[in-house]
Specification:
Blueprint (H helix, E strand, L loop, with lengths): L7 E6 L6 H4 L5 H9 L33 H9 L4 E6 L11 H18 L7 E6 L5 H11 L5 E9 L10 H9 L4 E7 L14 H21 L2 H4 L5 E4 L6 H15 L10 H8 E4 L9 H10 L6 E2 L21 H15 L1 H4 L4
Parallel strand pairs: 1-2, 2-3, 3-4, 4-5, 5-6, 6-7, 7-8
Length: 356
């Protein structure tokens, strides 16, 4: 039986990435002229294969248009259907993958302005993540500063496969700006394709790449820990989005066991990885890579060792569940209200402003 989702906060919803024609009005005269005169005004930096079954649930497809391109459909498919109080828009726009850092920054800025005008202004239930031109972390930090005053932006967004491990000091200006403004860093599945998308090299098929995302999240989580990001930025929250979560218990066991043996090489990590993860890391619930028996999923939830970590998400319009069964059978009842709403309010300081 589907769980009552009234008052829920959906932490992973994807509006379709804008094409260049949609962004032209948000560019200044110089860049608009550059795009048109170069013939790149038809550029469409979308992020996933549009006809792949995983990309779009059949009943969420839009005839003749991109899935996730209609705010009316978002209302009927998600906001009204699941009785969502608020939904966080994670626009998976490809601008950060561009090699020209100036152009990446300009298009990220335009896409954030487009999100504010075309989505946030049109429905008070919507919130959004700031698209970051991560190719240049100083530009990304500037974009956080520029957008931070708009409290409807509740998070800053990165891909799990950026150009280098995310714990490196290269990225710390981003974390500094995010922590300063009370913005969690959302790390979403996806790649800038600077490196092979599996640890073994380039895969041949989407299925390999998608399944392999879980290992990319593990690599990044460990790198964030050992490089000392959570020591330097203790108030920073990291939200792993579309990562799956059932891999986390065994990852924490392995990371903690090995840290006990090797912690002398990273003395700045002064608590166990499990403890740091439970305090600073959150995960969205879709996809739920659930074992077949509900009781087994319940045990995995217990093995997380914290009831505060999981956040409700539909991952609209991706196809991870059927009908209204967004909360898998087996997720313990004591967690329902926390997952549906309370954990998100505790994770996103700007969502707390909504609670009266
Ligand atoms: Zn997603």
């Amino acid at each position: 039986m589907a769980v009552d989702l009234s008052g829920s906060i959906d932490c992973d919803v994807h509006p379709a990435a804008p094409d260049m024609k949609q962004l032209l009005p948000y560019l200044d005269e110089f860049w608009r002229d550059m795009m048109v005169s170069r013939g790149t005004d038809g550029l469409d930096l979308r992020s996933y294969p549009p006809n792949s079954p995983l990309s779009v649930r059949p009943d969420w497809r839009i005839e003749g248009g991109k899935a996730g391109s209609s705010i009316e459909r978002l209302r009927t498919d998600v906001l009204d259907r699941f009785h969502v109080d608020h939904a966080i828009l994670n626009c998976l726009y490809g601008a950060p993958a561009l090699y020209n850092a100036d152009l990446g920054a300009v298009l990220s800025r335009a896409a954030n302005d487009w999100l504010a005008k075309e989505w946030l202004d049109r429905d008070p239930r919507l919130r959004a993540s700031i698209i970051l031109p991560t190719h240049n972390p100083l530009f990304a930090a500037e974009e956080i500063e520029r957008r931070a005053s708009d409290r409807r932006f509740v998070q800053a967004l990165m891909f799990v496969q950026e150009q280098m491990p995310l714990g490196r000091r290269h990225y710390w200006p981003i974390y500094e700006a995010a922590e300063k403004h009370g913005l969690p860093i959302g790390i979403h599945a996806g790649s800038l394709y600077r490196n092979p998308t599996t640890s073994l090299g380039w895969p041949s098929y989407v299925v390999e790449e998608y399944v392999g995302q879980a290992t990319a999240f593990q690599h990044q989580l460990l790198n964030l820990l050992v490089e000392g990001v959570f020591t330097k930025f203790p108030d920073l929250k990291i939200v792993l989005i579309e990562s799956g979560f059932t891999w986390l218990p065994h990852f924490m066991w392995r990371a903690t066991k090995t840290w006990i043996a090797l912690r002398t090489e990273i003395p700045w990590v002064d608590r166990s990885p499990s403890e740091i993860i439970r305090e600073n890391v959150r995960l969205t619930i879709q996809p739920t890579d659930a074992p077949p028996e509900p009781g087994q999923l319940a045990r995995i939830c217990d093995q997380l060792g914290s009831d505060d970590m999981l956040l409700f998400s539909t991952d609209y319009p991706h196809w991870h569940f059927e009908g209204d069964e967004v909360l898998s059978e087996g997720i313990p009842e004591r967690l329902h209200q926390k997952i549906i709403r309370d954990n998100a309010v505790a994770t996103y300081p700007r969502l707390k402003e909504l609670v009266v």
